[in-house]
Each structure stands twice: as C-alpha cells, then as structure tokens.
Amino acid sequence: MKKIILFFSLFYLSFACFSFLSAAPPKIKSDESLFFNLQKAGLSLNNSQDRKEFMDVVYLEKQKIQHKMLRNIYENAFNYYRQGNYDEAKALSSKILSIDPNFEDAAMLLDASSQLRGKARPFLSRRLLLEDRFRSALVLYKEGKIVEAYNKMGQVVKLSPTNIKAKYWLGKIVDDLKDYYFLKGKKAYKSRNLQGALDDYYNALLLRPKDSVILSEIAKTEEELRDSHANEKLKSALEYYAQGKLLFAYGELKKVLEIKPSDSKATKLLDEVRAEIEKGYIAEGRKHYGNRKYDSAIASWNKAKAYSESVSYINKLVKRTNDQIKIEEEQKKRRLEEAALRKKKEAEIKKREEEDKKRDFSTPKSGPIEDDGSKKRILQENRISAQHHYLAGLKYFQNSEYEKAKNEWTIAKQLDPENADAQAGLKRIENILSGGQ
After folding, report:
1. What pTM was computed for the model?
2. pLDDT per residue over 408-418, tens digit each?
3. Three-state SS for 163?
4. Residues 215, 246: contact at Cβ < 8 Å?
5. Residue 406 pLDDT > 90, yes or no?
6. Which of 80, 87, 201, 307 has minimal CB crowding within 10 Å?
7. What CATH number is associated with residue 309?
C-alpha cells in the first residue's frame, strides 16, 4: 500500500516540477493537500507514525526530483547563454530561482545574462565579462581572500568550461582553500572547539575528498567529540543519581551508551540504577498491597518490569495479588448472602413473635387450662431464646469461629429441639471440622 501511495505522490510531484515551464503554470499542491487527496482516493494511512514516515519520504523524493528537473532546466538556460540568447537564459534562470532561491548556478547565470542582455556584440561582451571576473578573482587571491577568490574563479570556470587558464588558477585556489579550512580546523581543535573543527575539516574534505590527512583528523576529532558528549551525559547522570532522581539518571545513562556503547563505567552504573528503580517500584507495590490497594500495587509492579532482568518474580507478585482480589471478592459475596439470610431469619422470628402475642391475647383464660397456658408461654420463651442463640452462633460462624458457633447452636437445639436452622448449622460445622464441604 505504501508503495502505491508513493508512486502516486511521485507522479504528482514530477508533474509539478515540469508545470512551471508553461506560460501560466498551475498551482502546485502542497504535501498536505497531496496527502488528503490520497485519503479521498482511498489510499490513506491511518497510523500517525506511518503518515510521518510517508511524508518524510515524499519530501526527500520531492527534493530529488525537483533538483534533477531544475538541473535540466539550468542546462537549457546555459545553452541559451552560450548561443548568445541572453533573454531566454535570463527568463529560465528567473523561473529556476522562483522555485529554488538557493540555486547558486542559476543566480550566477541570471547575473551574467542580465549584464550581457542587449549588448550590440554579445560574444565580445561575454569575453570581456569573463576576463573582468578572472582579474577580480586573482586580486582577491593575492589579497588572501581565499573563499571569495574561490567563488569568483569558480564562476569563471562554470561560465567558460573550456577556459584552461581559469581552471589552472581554480586548482591552485582549491589547494590553498583546502589548507585554509584545514588550518582553521586545527586552530579550532586546539581551542577545544571540536564541532567547529569538524565543520572546517569537512569543508576541506569537500575540496579534496581523498586526502588521508584530513580523513585522519576527522576520525580523531569525531572520536573525541563523542567522548566529550558521553562525558557530559555521564556527568549529568551522576548529578541526577546523587539527587535521587533515578529515572532521569537512567535516561542520561542510556544516552551515554548510545553515543559510546563500550563505556564500561556507564554500563556498570546503568545496572545499579536499573536495579534500584526496580526495587523502588517493588517496594511501592508492597506498600500498596499492605494497604489493600491492589490495582495500584499491580501498576507499580508492572512499571518494575521495564527495569527487571527477570520478570518471573514480579509476575508471581501480580498473580498472588489477582488471586487475593478473587478471594476477597468471594468473601464479600458470601458475607452479603449470609447477611441477607440473617435479615430474613430475623424477620421471620419477629413475625412469629407477633403472631404468638396475638394468640395469647385472643385466647380466653379459664381455670382448667391455666396450666396449659403457662406451658405454652414457657415453650414460646424457649423458642425465642433458642433463636437468639442461633443468631449469635451465625455471627461466630461467619467469622470462622466454629467452636463458639457450635456451642450457641447446641444451646439453641436444647431450648428448641424443633429448631431446624440450629440442627442444620451443627451438621454444617461437623462437616467442616471433619474436612468436608
């Protein structure tokens, strides 16, 4: 899919680079508008990272295609210049600069064409122009203005590729300019401006790409610059470590090893910091676990995994916590069920007590059945007392105090042999104590 998108992108970009040749060039679409047009066509990229990578590729390819097209146009403009058609050379150079203002050759050609345009004897005027620039370059060279002389003489060679004299002097200037940049780099290196030294060395290398001395200095300076950057990061890491900012110290040490993977000191310190971070997260998780904040405990232990050499122990902690969460959820559920059952039993007892009271008040009292009424009241009192003992035993049972529950339910059974709840509770305790369910 990405290749298809890139194909269409390059097609549009190629068309845009050619379109400026027409008298009224169409408006060139931006990268963003191109991207959204591709979305409409069903060639979209949903992932933001993929989109960024795609846009980067498009930009680079656009630059390559644009440079190639502009270079071709410049060749056409230069042909017009050699033929003495300075109007066309100027027009094409102007269009090139409207697209890429930094195209130095086009700017040079525009300047030369503008000076020669309209001259009665164009070829003679061009020769005089070149001789004037040649002399200016020599003056700059003799004055020690090597960079300016190089640029000026380079223009002469570009405008007159067959000028042997200009090529000879350009070669001499290049050697001096190479020495100029090289000595400037040495001076910067001596003052410990390593980045500045590298910039100058690379400028010298552009002039003489195969110079072994320059290459040697570049290699040495780059190594020292890497060491310098690594030492700065290491120093920063040690400062963070002393302040107890372990995560910041860890990040700086990782950067040290990215710059210099063989740094044994940074490697050893990184292991120590990593171990401390891991221990800190594990201790934090244990504290949350002790406060029964299980989700926070698991979160802390998961953070520790990123700094652990072996996560098996951490996985055990997480598993134990998840198991504990399940146990407590089951216990909570059982307590709610037992509370609901107890509430239901209490309601039933209360209802029976109210019904018994109503019967006592509604039964006429007479001499012959007085003893029977007394017995009924005793039985009723026993049932009520037995139920209170049952409820007390139920609370003990919920707290796993089985012996106390057994005593209460035994008393309840003695007071009310018909109390089925007490009988069932005793049977359940007997099963638990004997290892049953």
Report:
1. 0.49
2. 889 988 888 88
3. coil
4. no
5. no
6. 87
7. 1.25.40
